[in-house]
Amino acid sequence: DTGVSQDPRHKITKRGQNVTFRCDPISEHNRLYWYRQTLGQGPEFLTYFQNEAQLEKSRLLSDRFSAERPKGSFSTLEIQRTEQGDSAMYLCASSLFFSHGTSGNYEQYFGPGTRLTVT
Amino acid sequence: DAKTTQPNSMESNEEEPVHLPCNHSTISGTDYIHWYRQLPSQGPEYVIHGLTSNVNNRMASLAIAEDRKSSTLILHRATLRDAAVYYCILREEAGNMLTFGGGTRLMVKP
After folding, report:
1. Interface residue of A35, A103, A115 to substitute, partner B, most B CBs within 10 Å
2. How does the average pLDDT of chain B come out, rounded?
């Protein structure tokens, strides 16, 4: 397994356009997370899935953002009507979670990120 | 998740040990202490985690204070490839996301 992959690695778009990013997690991982990172800051949590169910969304995830994981494998993050403030690195991570265990233990594996620039 | 405090930056010489401190005075009994690092132009990567006892793995050691209000990540011999931002994160037992702070930027001098 080559780890978590993200596509595209870079995206430049004009303000007002829609963009979609894809994340392919490690194959046996049931949890998938999206984070956003702006320059000089640590990543900020956006949302996460367990299998195909979206279990939590940050208040950072405005109505213009939507994420899906339709078959519990890959995930997409769409941003509608992009704004310059959406310019950031969008990171995806995955992990393996057992319901009888403690999620405090389970490390997350991150992809390389998609860098979005809105002009 | 409880808050952590780390120095903004640290410098080290190559092949010397590095001790990266983290304060977490509001830690709760069920919080795990995780360390991740982010190399330039890459996503974060897991380094180590612990609950109460000191931990060792191939990348680093984690020393946890007896009262758990602080911890130290130890890189035994820093290399140029260890130059990165190191994040200390507390994660609740039932928590799911990682809450990153600003981290410590480690610079390694040859």
Report:
1. A103
2. 93
Q: Distance (Å, rounded) from C-alpha A53 to C-alpha A68?
A: 9
The answer to whether the beta carbons of residues A89 and A113 sit under 8 Å apart is yes
Q: Give whole-number Cα distances, A92 to A24, A100, A111, in Å.
A: 8, 25, 6
Closest residue to A104, CB basis, from B32, B100, B102:
B32
- What's the average model confidence in pLDDT over B53-57? 94
Structure tokens at A23: 């994340």
CA distances from B65 to B21, B33, B57, B109 (A): 11, 11, 18, 29
Q: Which of residues 25-54 of B touch A (CB under 8 A)?
A: 30-32, 34, 41-46, 49, 51
Q: How many residues does chain A have?
A: 119
Q: Is the pLDDT of residue A109 over 60?
A: yes
pLDDT over threshold 90, residue A51: yes
Instruction: Give the DSSP H/E element, type plus range, for residue B91.
Output: strand B84-91
Residue pair A45/B98 in contact by the 8 Å Cβ criterion: yes
Is residue B89 within 8 A of residue B4, CB to CB? The reply is yes
Q: Which pLDDT belongs to residue B91?
A: 87
The pLDDT, as a whole number, for residue A41 is 93
- Cβ separation of A42 and B42 shorter than 8 Å? no
Q: Which residues contact B40 (CB under 8 A, 6 or more apart)?
A: B83, B84
